[in-house]
Protein backbone atom coordinates (compact mmCIF):
# COMPACT_ATOMS: atom_id res chain seq x y z
CA UNK A 1 0.00 0.00 0.00
CA UNK A 2 2.79 2.45 0.89
CA UNK A 3 4.55 1.73 -2.43
CA UNK A 4 1.37 2.64 -4.31
CA UNK A 5 1.12 5.97 -2.45
CA UNK A 6 4.79 6.90 -3.11
CA UNK A 7 4.74 6.20 -6.88
CA UNK A 8 3.02 9.50 -7.91
CA UNK A 9 5.56 11.47 -5.85
CA UNK A 10 8.43 9.80 -7.72
CA UNK A 11 6.79 10.61 -11.06
CA UNK A 12 6.34 14.22 -10.00
CA UNK A 13 9.98 14.50 -8.98
CA UNK A 14 11.10 13.09 -12.30
CA UNK A 15 8.83 15.51 -14.18
CA UNK A 16 10.18 18.45 -12.17
CA UNK A 17 13.74 17.33 -12.88
CA UNK A 18 13.00 17.15 -16.60
CA UNK A 19 11.45 20.60 -16.52
CA UNK A 20 14.47 21.96 -14.68
CA UNK A 21 16.78 20.33 -17.24
CA UNK A 22 14.74 21.75 -20.12
CA UNK A 23 14.81 25.16 -18.49
CA UNK A 24 18.57 25.01 -18.04
CA UNK A 25 18.90 23.95 -21.71
CA UNK A 26 16.66 26.80 -22.82
CA UNK A 27 18.67 29.28 -20.76
CA UNK A 28 21.90 27.90 -22.24
CA UNK A 29 20.57 28.17 -25.79
CA UNK A 30 19.22 31.63 -25.07
CA UNK A 31 22.64 32.70 -23.82
CA UNK A 32 24.19 31.24 -26.97
CA UNK A 33 21.66 33.11 -29.09
CA UNK A 34 22.28 36.34 -27.18
CA UNK A 35 26.03 35.91 -27.58
CA UNK A 36 25.68 35.15 -31.30
CA UNK A 37 23.46 38.17 -31.71
CA UNK A 38 26.04 40.29 -29.90
CA UNK A 39 28.75 39.00 -32.22
CA UNK A 40 26.52 39.73 -35.23
CA UNK A 41 25.93 43.29 -34.08
CA UNK A 42 29.64 43.74 -33.43
CA UNK A 43 30.48 42.30 -36.86
CA UNK A 44 27.94 44.61 -38.52
CA UNK A 45 29.40 47.63 -36.74
CA UNK A 46 32.93 46.53 -37.65
CA UNK A 47 31.95 46.00 -41.30
CA UNK A 48 30.32 49.42 -41.45
CA UNK A 49 33.40 50.97 -39.82
CA UNK A 50 35.69 49.26 -42.32
CA UNK A 51 33.48 50.40 -45.20
CA UNK A 52 33.49 53.97 -43.90
CA UNK A 53 37.26 53.84 -43.49
CA UNK A 54 37.70 52.43 -47.00
CA UNK A 55 35.47 55.13 -48.49
CA UNK A 56 37.34 57.80 -46.54
CA UNK A 57 40.68 56.37 -47.70
CA UNK A 58 39.43 56.31 -51.30
CA UNK A 59 38.28 59.92 -50.97
CA UNK A 60 41.66 60.94 -49.53
CA UNK A 61 43.39 59.11 -52.37
CA UNK A 62 41.33 60.91 -55.01
CA UNK A 63 41.92 64.26 -53.32
CA UNK A 64 45.65 63.53 -53.10
CA UNK A 65 45.84 62.53 -56.77
CA UNK A 66 43.94 65.65 -57.79
CA UNK A 67 46.27 67.84 -55.72
CA UNK A 68 49.31 66.00 -57.08
CA UNK A 69 48.16 66.58 -60.63
CA UNK A 70 47.51 70.24 -59.87
CA UNK A 71 50.95 70.75 -58.35
CA UNK A 72 52.70 68.93 -61.20
CA UNK A 73 50.72 70.70 -63.92
CA UNK A 74 51.74 74.14 -62.64
CA UNK A 75 55.43 73.72 -63.55
CA UNK A 76 54.47 71.94 -66.79
CA UNK A 77 52.44 74.95 -67.96
CA UNK A 78 55.32 77.46 -68.37
CA UNK A 79 57.58 74.76 -69.85
CA UNK A 80 54.95 73.95 -72.47
CA UNK A 81 54.30 77.61 -73.23
CA UNK A 82 58.01 78.39 -73.46
CA UNK A 83 58.39 75.61 -76.04
CA UNK A 84 55.47 77.06 -78.01
CA UNK A 85 57.11 80.49 -77.93
CA UNK A 86 60.37 79.01 -79.26
CA UNK A 87 58.43 77.50 -82.15
CA UNK A 88 57.21 80.94 -83.19
CA UNK A 89 60.58 82.64 -83.01
CA UNK A 90 62.27 83.23 -86.37
CA UNK A 91 65.75 82.08 -87.42
CA UNK A 92 66.16 79.35 -84.82
CA UNK A 93 69.27 77.21 -85.14
CA UNK A 94 68.77 73.49 -85.86
CA UNK A 95 69.97 72.75 -82.33
CA UNK A 96 67.28 74.96 -80.77
CA UNK A 97 64.61 73.44 -83.01
CA UNK A 98 65.63 69.97 -81.85
CA UNK A 99 65.64 71.02 -78.19
CA UNK A 100 62.21 72.63 -78.55
CA UNK A 101 60.84 69.39 -80.01
CA UNK A 102 62.24 67.37 -77.12
CA UNK A 103 60.72 69.75 -74.55
CA UNK A 104 57.32 69.68 -76.26
CA UNK A 105 57.19 65.89 -76.59
CA UNK A 106 58.28 65.22 -73.02
CA UNK A 107 55.86 67.81 -71.60
CA UNK A 108 52.98 66.20 -73.46
CA UNK A 109 54.15 62.77 -72.28
CA UNK A 110 54.13 63.90 -68.64
CA UNK A 111 50.69 65.44 -69.07
CA UNK A 112 49.36 62.14 -70.49
CA UNK A 113 50.84 60.21 -67.56
CA UNK A 114 49.02 62.51 -65.16
CA UNK A 115 45.77 62.11 -67.07
CA UNK A 116 46.05 58.31 -67.04
CA UNK A 117 46.77 58.24 -63.32
CA UNK A 118 43.79 60.44 -62.52
CA UNK A 119 41.51 58.53 -64.91
CA UNK A 120 42.42 55.24 -63.24
CA UNK A 121 41.43 56.67 -59.85
CA UNK A 122 38.21 58.23 -61.16
CA UNK A 123 37.13 55.10 -63.02
CA UNK A 124 37.69 52.91 -59.95
CA UNK A 125 35.42 55.20 -57.94
CA UNK A 126 32.79 55.45 -60.69
CA UNK A 127 33.34 59.16 -61.27
CA UNK A 128 33.74 59.10 -65.07
CA UNK A 129 30.74 59.52 -67.34
CA UNK A 130 30.67 59.23 -71.12
CA UNK A 131 29.42 61.90 -73.50
CA UNK A 132 28.09 59.35 -75.98
CA UNK A 133 27.17 60.13 -79.59
CA UNK A 134 27.75 58.48 -82.99
CA UNK A 135 31.38 59.04 -84.01
CA UNK A 136 33.20 57.93 -87.15
CA UNK A 137 35.68 55.12 -86.57
CA UNK A 138 38.10 56.63 -89.08
CA UNK A 139 38.01 59.98 -87.27
CA UNK A 140 38.80 58.40 -83.88
CA UNK A 141 41.69 56.41 -85.39
CA UNK A 142 43.07 59.51 -87.11
CA UNK A 143 43.05 61.48 -83.87
CA UNK A 144 44.73 58.64 -81.95
CA UNK A 145 47.47 58.30 -84.58
CA UNK A 146 48.04 62.05 -84.57
CA UNK A 147 48.58 61.92 -80.80
CA UNK A 148 51.32 59.28 -80.85
CA UNK A 149 52.94 59.96 -84.24
CA UNK A 150 55.65 62.30 -82.85
CA UNK A 151 56.84 59.60 -80.43
CA UNK A 152 56.81 56.93 -83.15
CA UNK A 153 58.80 59.21 -85.44
CA UNK A 154 61.27 60.05 -82.67
CA UNK A 155 62.11 56.36 -82.28
CA UNK A 156 62.36 55.68 -86.00
CA UNK A 157 59.47 53.22 -85.90
CA UNK A 158 57.14 52.47 -88.80
CA UNK A 159 53.40 52.70 -88.14
CA UNK A 160 51.02 51.23 -90.73
CA UNK A 161 47.35 52.23 -90.39
CA UNK A 162 44.70 50.25 -92.26
CA UNK A 163 41.07 51.33 -91.95
CA UNK A 164 39.17 48.85 -94.11
CA UNK A 165 35.66 50.17 -93.42
CA UNK A 166 35.84 53.98 -92.99
CA UNK A 167 32.04 54.22 -93.04
CA UNK A 168 31.73 52.39 -89.71
CA UNK A 169 30.69 54.35 -86.63
CA UNK A 170 30.91 53.83 -82.89
CA UNK A 171 28.39 55.02 -80.35
CA UNK A 172 30.60 56.55 -77.69
CA UNK A 173 32.63 59.39 -76.28
CA UNK A 174 34.97 60.72 -78.99
CA UNK A 175 37.60 61.89 -76.49
CA UNK A 176 37.61 58.65 -74.49
CA UNK A 177 37.65 56.44 -77.60
CA UNK A 178 40.61 58.41 -78.93
CA UNK A 179 42.27 57.86 -75.56
CA UNK A 180 41.73 54.08 -75.83
CA UNK A 181 43.49 53.74 -79.18
CA UNK A 182 46.21 56.30 -78.48
CA UNK A 183 47.03 54.44 -75.24
CA UNK A 184 47.27 51.15 -77.14
CA UNK A 185 49.53 52.72 -79.78
CA UNK A 186 51.68 54.40 -77.13
CA UNK A 187 52.02 51.08 -75.31
CA UNK A 188 53.03 49.31 -78.54
CA UNK A 189 55.65 51.98 -79.24
CA UNK A 190 56.94 51.86 -75.67
CA UNK A 191 57.65 48.13 -75.78
CA UNK A 192 59.00 48.03 -79.33
CA UNK A 193 62.62 48.69 -80.16
CA UNK A 194 63.79 51.73 -82.13
CA UNK A 195 63.10 51.10 -85.80
CA UNK A 196 60.37 48.57 -84.98
CA UNK A 197 57.10 48.01 -86.79
CA UNK A 198 53.59 48.83 -85.49
CA UNK A 199 50.32 48.05 -87.25
CA UNK A 200 46.83 49.36 -86.50
CA UNK A 201 43.96 47.67 -88.35
CA UNK A 202 40.36 48.85 -88.01
CA UNK A 203 37.26 47.49 -89.66
CA UNK A 204 34.21 45.27 -89.28
CA UNK A 205 34.33 42.50 -86.69
CA UNK A 206 32.12 39.87 -85.00
CA UNK A 207 30.76 42.41 -82.49
CA UNK A 208 30.40 45.17 -85.11
CA UNK A 209 33.77 46.96 -84.98
CA UNK A 210 37.21 45.42 -84.48
CA UNK A 211 40.49 47.29 -83.97
CA UNK A 212 43.84 45.53 -83.53
CA UNK A 213 47.17 47.07 -82.57
CA UNK A 214 50.16 44.79 -83.13
CA UNK A 215 53.91 45.19 -82.87
CA UNK A 216 57.14 43.22 -83.25
CA UNK A 217 58.44 44.34 -79.85
CA UNK A 218 59.42 42.67 -76.60
CA UNK A 219 56.24 40.62 -76.26
CA UNK A 220 54.52 39.54 -73.05
CA UNK A 221 55.52 36.64 -70.82
CA UNK A 222 52.89 33.98 -70.15
CA UNK A 223 52.77 34.75 -66.41
CA UNK A 224 52.21 38.48 -67.07
CA UNK A 225 49.61 38.12 -69.82
CA UNK A 226 46.59 37.31 -67.56
CA UNK A 227 47.29 40.46 -65.50
CA UNK A 228 48.33 42.86 -68.26
CA UNK A 229 45.22 45.04 -67.81
CA UNK A 230 45.47 45.19 -64.01
CA UNK A 231 46.36 48.48 -62.38
CA UNK A 232 50.12 49.07 -61.94
CA UNK A 233 51.06 45.97 -63.96
CA UNK A 234 54.08 46.74 -66.12
CA UNK A 235 55.76 44.97 -68.96
CA UNK A 236 59.46 44.12 -68.86
CA UNK A 237 61.96 46.93 -68.41
CA UNK A 238 65.30 46.76 -70.15
CA UNK A 239 68.41 48.12 -68.50
CA UNK A 240 69.08 50.20 -71.62
CA UNK A 241 65.66 51.88 -71.71
CA UNK A 242 63.46 52.87 -68.78
CA UNK A 243 60.11 52.23 -70.48
CA UNK A 244 58.04 50.76 -67.66
CA UNK A 245 55.73 53.74 -67.20
CA UNK A 246 53.18 53.81 -64.39
CA UNK A 247 51.31 50.65 -65.35
CA UNK A 248 47.94 52.44 -65.61
CA UNK A 249 47.44 53.02 -69.35
CA UNK A 250 46.15 49.55 -70.19
CA UNK A 251 43.94 49.51 -67.09
CA UNK A 252 42.32 52.71 -68.34
CA UNK A 253 41.92 51.13 -71.79
CA UNK A 254 40.11 48.08 -70.42
CA UNK A 255 37.76 50.09 -68.24
CA UNK A 256 36.89 52.60 -70.98
CA UNK A 257 36.28 49.80 -73.49
CA UNK A 258 33.98 48.03 -71.00
CA UNK A 259 32.11 51.29 -70.41
CA UNK A 260 31.46 51.38 -74.17
CA UNK A 261 30.05 47.83 -74.11
CA UNK A 262 33.15 46.27 -75.68
CA UNK A 263 36.01 43.92 -74.85
CA UNK A 264 39.78 44.09 -75.17
CA UNK A 265 42.17 41.15 -75.22
CA UNK A 266 45.94 40.79 -75.34
CA UNK A 267 47.87 38.05 -77.16
CA UNK A 268 51.57 37.30 -77.37
CA UNK A 269 53.77 34.38 -78.29
CA UNK A 270 56.05 35.27 -75.39
CA UNK A 271 59.18 37.36 -74.87
CA UNK A 272 60.61 38.65 -78.13
CA UNK A 273 57.52 37.68 -80.14
CA UNK A 274 55.64 40.98 -80.12
CA UNK A 275 52.05 41.47 -78.99
CA UNK A 276 48.56 41.99 -80.36
CA UNK A 277 45.75 43.90 -78.64
CA UNK A 278 42.24 43.39 -80.02
CA UNK A 279 39.30 45.67 -79.23
CA UNK A 280 35.75 44.56 -80.09
CA UNK A 281 32.89 47.05 -79.87
CA UNK A 282 29.32 47.27 -81.13
CA UNK A 283 28.85 49.43 -84.20
CA UNK A 284 27.08 52.75 -83.76
CA UNK A 285 24.20 54.45 -85.55
CA UNK A 286 24.35 56.83 -88.50
CA UNK A 287 26.27 60.08 -88.13
CA UNK A 288 24.19 63.28 -87.85
CA UNK A 289 24.25 65.52 -90.89
CA UNK A 290 27.31 67.74 -90.91
CA UNK A 291 26.77 71.47 -90.60
CA UNK A 292 27.95 73.54 -93.59
CA UNK A 293 31.47 74.86 -93.14
CA UNK A 294 31.59 78.53 -92.22
CA UNK A 295 33.58 80.97 -94.25
CA UNK A 296 37.15 81.50 -93.13
CA UNK A 297 37.49 84.63 -90.99
CA UNK A 298 40.75 86.46 -90.64
CA UNK A 299 42.53 86.48 -87.28
CA UNK A 300 41.63 89.36 -84.95
CA UNK A 301 43.93 90.80 -82.30
CA UNK A 302 42.23 90.98 -78.89
CA UNK A 303 42.65 92.91 -75.66
CA UNK A 304 43.33 90.16 -73.14
CA UNK A 305 43.29 90.38 -69.36
CA UNK A 306 45.40 87.56 -67.87
CA UNK A 307 45.08 86.80 -64.13
CA UNK A 308 47.59 84.18 -62.91
CA UNK A 309 49.51 84.10 -59.63
CA UNK A 310 52.29 81.80 -60.86
CA UNK A 311 54.77 84.32 -62.25
CA UNK A 312 56.41 81.89 -64.69
CA UNK A 313 53.07 80.72 -66.04
CA UNK A 314 51.77 84.27 -66.31
CA UNK A 315 54.84 85.74 -68.01
CA UNK A 316 55.31 82.93 -70.53
CA UNK A 317 51.61 82.90 -71.41
CA UNK A 318 51.60 86.67 -71.77
CA UNK A 319 54.64 86.54 -74.04
CA UNK A 320 53.09 83.79 -76.16
CA UNK A 321 49.84 85.70 -76.66
CA UNK A 322 51.75 88.85 -77.55
CA UNK A 323 53.62 86.90 -80.23
CA UNK A 324 50.17 86.27 -81.73
CA UNK A 325 49.61 90.07 -81.82
CA UNK A 326 47.22 90.20 -78.84
CA UNK A 327 47.37 93.13 -76.41
CA UNK A 328 47.82 91.52 -72.98
CA UNK A 329 47.53 93.02 -69.49
CA UNK A 330 48.59 90.78 -66.58
CA UNK A 331 47.62 90.66 -62.91
CA UNK A 332 49.08 88.31 -60.31
CA UNK A 333 46.20 88.08 -57.81
CA UNK A 334 42.42 88.05 -57.80
CA UNK A 335 41.90 91.46 -56.19
CA UNK A 336 44.06 93.36 -58.68
CA UNK A 337 42.68 91.32 -61.58
CA UNK A 338 39.06 91.99 -60.60
CA UNK A 339 39.76 95.74 -60.32
CA UNK A 340 41.25 95.78 -63.83
CA UNK A 341 38.38 93.74 -65.27
CA UNK A 342 35.79 96.08 -63.72
CA UNK A 343 37.43 99.03 -65.45
CA UNK A 344 36.51 97.45 -68.77
CA UNK A 345 38.28 97.69 -72.09
CA UNK A 346 39.05 93.97 -72.51
CA UNK A 347 37.77 91.43 -75.03
CA UNK A 348 38.88 88.24 -73.29
CA UNK A 349 39.58 87.21 -69.70
CA UNK A 350 41.97 84.32 -69.02
CA UNK A 351 41.85 83.57 -65.32
CA UNK A 352 43.45 80.97 -63.06
CA UNK A 353 41.11 79.37 -60.52
CA UNK A 354 43.48 79.16 -57.55
CA UNK A 355 44.31 82.81 -56.90
CA UNK A 356 45.23 84.71 -53.72
CA UNK A 357 42.83 87.42 -52.59
CA UNK A 358 39.78 86.45 -54.64
CA UNK A 359 39.93 83.05 -56.31
CA UNK A 360 38.95 82.75 -59.96
CA UNK A 361 35.40 81.65 -59.15
CA UNK A 362 34.85 84.73 -57.00
CA UNK A 363 36.31 86.98 -59.72
CA UNK A 364 33.92 85.71 -62.39
CA UNK A 365 30.91 85.72 -60.05
CA UNK A 366 31.47 89.41 -59.23
CA UNK A 367 31.97 90.29 -62.88
CA UNK A 368 28.78 88.50 -63.94
CA UNK A 369 26.86 90.06 -61.05
CA UNK A 370 27.98 93.46 -62.35
CA UNK A 371 26.63 92.68 -65.80
CA UNK A 372 29.91 91.89 -67.55
CA UNK A 373 29.60 89.79 -70.71
CA UNK A 374 33.36 89.44 -71.11
CA UNK A 375 34.35 86.14 -72.74
CA UNK A 376 36.05 84.30 -69.86
CA UNK A 377 38.38 81.30 -70.01
CA UNK A 378 39.26 79.46 -66.81
CA UNK A 379 42.71 77.91 -66.30
CA UNK A 380 43.20 75.17 -63.72
CA UNK A 381 45.44 72.31 -62.72
CA UNK A 382 42.33 70.32 -61.68
CA UNK A 383 40.81 68.17 -64.42
CA UNK A 384 37.89 66.46 -62.68
CA UNK A 385 34.38 66.90 -64.04
CA UNK A 386 33.06 68.65 -60.93
CA UNK A 387 35.86 71.25 -61.18
CA UNK A 388 34.90 72.04 -64.78
CA UNK A 389 31.19 72.11 -63.98
CA UNK A 390 31.78 74.42 -60.99
CA UNK A 391 33.75 76.89 -63.10
CA UNK A 392 31.15 76.96 -65.87
CA UNK A 393 28.35 77.34 -63.33
CA UNK A 394 30.16 80.30 -61.76
CA UNK A 395 30.17 82.10 -65.10
CA UNK A 396 33.19 81.04 -67.14
CA UNK A 397 32.57 80.35 -70.82
CA UNK A 398 35.34 77.77 -71.19
CA UNK A 399 37.65 75.65 -69.03
CA UNK A 400 41.20 74.62 -69.91
CA UNK A 401 43.44 72.28 -67.92
CA UNK A 402 47.13 73.06 -67.48
CA UNK A 403 49.41 72.64 -69.32
CA UNK A 404 47.24 74.39 -71.92
CA UNK A 405 47.77 73.43 -75.54
CA UNK A 406 48.73 76.72 -77.22
CA UNK A 407 46.74 75.99 -80.39
CA UNK A 408 43.63 75.20 -78.31
CA UNK A 409 43.91 78.50 -76.43
CA UNK A 410 44.39 80.53 -79.61
CA UNK A 411 41.48 78.76 -81.29
CA UNK A 412 39.26 79.53 -78.30
CA UNK A 413 40.19 83.22 -78.36
CA UNK A 414 39.40 83.28 -82.08
CA UNK A 415 36.21 81.19 -81.80
CA UNK A 416 32.88 82.31 -83.20
CA UNK A 417 31.42 82.55 -79.70
CA UNK A 418 34.21 84.84 -78.56
CA UNK A 419 33.90 86.94 -81.73
CA UNK A 420 30.15 87.26 -81.25
CA UNK A 421 30.63 88.39 -77.65
CA UNK A 422 33.11 91.06 -78.76
CA UNK A 423 30.78 92.23 -81.52
CA UNK A 424 27.95 92.87 -79.05
CA UNK A 425 30.20 94.56 -76.52
CA UNK A 426 31.64 93.12 -73.30
Automatic annotation (TrEMBL):
Residues 303-417 form the Response regulatory domain. It catalyses: ATP + protein L-histidine = ADP + protein N-phospho-L-histidine. The keyword Coiled coil applies. It comes from Pseudoduganella umbonata. Keywords: Coiled coil, Kinase, Phosphoprotein, Transferase. Residues 33-67 form a coiled coil. Its main location: membrane. This is histidine kinase. It comes from the Bacteria. One of its GO terms (molecular function) is phosphorelay sensor kinase activity. The modification 4-aspartylphosphate is found at residue 352. GO terms for cellular component: plasma membrane. Pfam families: HATPase_c (PF02518), HisKA (PF00512), Response_reg (PF00072). It is found in: Cell inner membrane. It is an enzyme of class 2 (transferase). Residues 67-285 form the Histidine kinase domain. The keyword ATP-binding does not apply.
Amino acid sequence: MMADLEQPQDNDSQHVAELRLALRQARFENNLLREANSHLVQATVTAQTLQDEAEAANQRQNEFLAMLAHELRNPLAPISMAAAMLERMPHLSPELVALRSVISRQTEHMARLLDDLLDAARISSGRITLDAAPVALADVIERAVETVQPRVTERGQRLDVRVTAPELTLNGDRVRLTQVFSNLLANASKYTQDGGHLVLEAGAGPAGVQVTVSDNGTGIAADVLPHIFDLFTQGPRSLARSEGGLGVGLNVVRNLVHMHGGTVQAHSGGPGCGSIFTVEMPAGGPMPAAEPASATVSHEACRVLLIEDNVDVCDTLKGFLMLDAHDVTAAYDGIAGLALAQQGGFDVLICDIGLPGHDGLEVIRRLRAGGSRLFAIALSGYSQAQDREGALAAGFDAYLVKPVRPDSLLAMIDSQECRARRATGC
